[in-house]
Amino acid sequence: MRRLACLVLLAAAPLLIGGCAAMAVAPIAAIAYKGASKATEAARPITDSEEYYVGRAVAARILGKYKLDQNPKLTQYVNEVGETVARKSSRPNPFRGYHFAVLDTQEVNAFACPGGIIFITRGLIQTCNSEDQLAAVLAHEVGHVANKDGINSISQARWTEVWTAMGKEAVTMYGGSVAAGLVSLFEGSIDDVFKTIVVNGYSRQAEETADAAALTELTKAGYDPSAMVALLTALEAKGKGASSGIFKTHPPTSERLARVKTSVGQSPAESQGEKIRTERFKKMAS
Hints:
This protein has one domain. It has helices at 2-16, 19-34, 48-65, 72-86, 122-127, 131-146, 149-152, 156-166, 168-174, 178-185, 187-200, 204-221, 227-238, 246-249, 253-264, 272-285; strands at residues 99-103, 110-112, 117-121. With 286 residues, it is mainly alpha-helical. Helix 3 (48-65) crosses helix 11 and helix 13 (227-238) runs antiparallel to helix 15. The chain is globular.
């Protein structure tokens, strides 16, 4: 947990302090303005390493709003469950991997930063009634990472501005190391992603796709996909009259529930393995 906090805060360094960051960005900027790229450079796909650095900076913004939970056993448990479903996703190995952490707040929410840093709140964990439901939450967030929903929320205008400033010559000379320096130039882009994740939410299509991905991940990982139905049922009951957290940034829970029910079909009887997982969850989440 402490390691994750350090990892994320280091990502924010180019935004928060001068010093070394200024030294790193200065030569990049000098070369960029010598040979700025053509406008077509803005259309190139962002690399996984660039997505990772933007995601770390977004995570730092989130940690400026929420505190990390101080229970290392719970954090380790959430990481184990998260890694289990992530390995079965369409993107099991993002640059530097997945990292899961718990936020110490009763708000019911979860956030997927570009590149693989995923947060879940205490409030959402307590809304879950089993490990399979927790896995459903994390699988949904992994779906957003796999689909690159966070990084795709940055407008094309932002990319044009960034790549015009950086220039093809700088990218060629600095190679992978340019990604870290990009964070300072990406500040506006980071704002775009933060607002999408925390304030406005993704599009209905993105949420539908993440739900569908979660069902696939759950099944492949050996979890019961009908846990998604149980989770959404609990969220629907808890969200009546609520207008914050997950209820603000996601489509109506009733719509998601109806769609997932159609996909899952009849819920099977609870297996012995599921009973064991539920007991484990109750012990860890208490």
